[in-house]
Known about the structure:
Blueprint: H1 4-12, E1 19-20, H2 27-40, E2 50-56, H3 57-75, H4 78-92, E3 96-102, H5 104-113, H6 121-142, E4 146-150, H7 157-164, E5 171-181
Helix pairs in contact: 2-6, 3-4
Bound molecules: flavin mononucleotide.
Domain Nitroreductase: 12-180
GO cellular component, one term: nucleus
Subcellular location: Cytoplasm; Nucleus
Amino acid sequence: MGAEQLLQPFQSRRTFYALEASSTISDDKINEIVHAVVKHTPSSFNSQSTRVLVLLADEHKKLWEEIVKPAVKAVAPPEAWEGSEKKLTGFANAYGSVLFYEDPQDVSNLQQKFPLYSDKFPQWSEHTNAMHQYALWTAFEQEGLGANLQHYNPLIDEKVASTWGIPKTWSLKGQLVFGKPASQPGEKSFKPIEGERLFVYGGKFGQKK
Length: 209
Ligand SMILES: Cc1cc2nc3c(=O)[nH]c(=O)nc-3n(C[C@H](O)[C@H](O)[C@H](O)COP(=O)(O)O)c2cc1C
């Protein structure tokens, strides 16, 4: 397999906000894909510190209607609530959510084992988590699903933990909302790459002039 076969999915992955409460693939297939992402995504020192909670259909709806909405309403300025509620209803009307956690026990195990990198492990744990998010986001969209990434942590952490039996120590990092796309995302603008975001020297590119 050449890089193109991966670069194409990277290129077509986008943020889809308009989603339906249905899926382009079966619940079993969703589970299979998440399983593969959890198994094969790399982690700092192979710590495997990421934990994933998948909520489908009615359980997904419960998250957004019964947990996120009241939590946001409690802290939102009254004039902002109408807009927030509309946005949250959009998420509630999708098909599923994947919640990405890090287990701090795995991070402190690393810190004890490798004291030299002690101060680096929390950051590498965030990197590890983000890699899982990106891998799953990209994989889902290869199956015709649309997804968007949200961050209602830590506002919702306690309620989610007590509802789905998640250890209170796990740290929630992000929520990937997904479903069948109801519309396509718009054009995306790009900053210049060569000379601004990408620098290559050596080989045919030569030394810096
Ligand atoms: C680390 C990270 C955090 C993000 N957080 C949010 C978020 O909290 N809410 C949201 O609606 N989109 C969020 N996004 C989506 C970005 O806004 C989006 O990926 C970006 O505008 C590029 O658009 P694209 O995903 O269609 O390529 C996040 C993306 C990344 C990579």
